[in-house]
Fold this sequence. Notes:
The complex is a heterodimer.
Chain A: H1 3-34, H2 43-97, E1 98-103, E2 108-114, E3 119-126, E4 131-138, E5 141-149, E6 158-163, E7 166-175, E8 178-187
Chain B: H1 9-60, E1 81-90, E2 95-97, E3 105-114, E4 117-127
Antiparallel strand pairs in B: 1-2, 1-3, 3-4
Amino acid sequence: xxxxxxxxxxxxxxxxxxxxxGSYRQIRRRQPEDGRREAGFTLPEMLIAAFLVASAAGxxxxxxxxxFIVSQGGNARLSELTDLESAALWIGRDATEAVSWTPGSGxxxxxxxxxDPSISYRYGFIGAENALARQVLVSGTPQQTLRLARHIANxxxxxxxxxxxxxxxxxxxxxxxxxxxxTFNVSxxxx
Amino acid sequence: MxxxxxxxxxxxxxxxxxxxxxxxxxxxGIYTGVIGVRTKHGSVYSQTLARSQLExxxxxxxxxxxxxxxxxxxxxxxxxxxxxGVEYWQTSSGTFVSGVxxxxxxxxTVTVSDANGPLQQLESYLVxx
Lengths: 191, 129
């Protein structure tokens, strides 16, 4: 490269820089003419603002998610507890009238026989509804079916076991990912 | 300055107060829900346990001297305790007394408690027959 070429390169660069610095001067000149500064944010300001907005959005989203999760979990637990309460009350009521318990087969857990030979109470599982059901039988004919618990995941989640006149019942109610279990004794009082 | 829209301090404070109120109401709602579920849990389990304990004793039948041959006890759920109190009928006075007697009638009191105190109390009578 000749000296002349180098000189023309440098002189060209100077001319270019000169024109750029000229444009800066134009901006600086324009501000006082308008009588006000150009409103705007610097990059650090924008970054901090973006960070704060992201943090606030994250917190709000977490709070909303928690509200839904807590309320769903609470509802699920209440449903399960209501199932256990209802089943315990009805089984306890029927046991006080019962003289014996006859284990059932298939979907039937078994039957409480009362002092009146024509009246009995049968307990069974309705798979399509995940329900523990109670039927009043008059002379072996079902009169009325009552769903005591509607959150029984499997037939094996309700177990009746008998020792003499004492019936021990174990129930697990499941709703979503939570479940509640209870085991209680009832005495066949009419025996 | 032209075009510089903004809020006054009073407006900011009012909006903050409204926001805080909204957040407070939501948190209070969640807290009430949690307390409600906990109360229901205690109520159902204490009721089931108290009834279960009483049924166990009624099934076992009358013990003339429960201090010598105690009544059976139900296994409580974790976090609950069950206590059985027995009072004895005194024919001469016509009242129940705490000292062991065998006048053929006992009053049973089953108390279920959790860490915060008694939750449920059931009472029943046992007759010697």
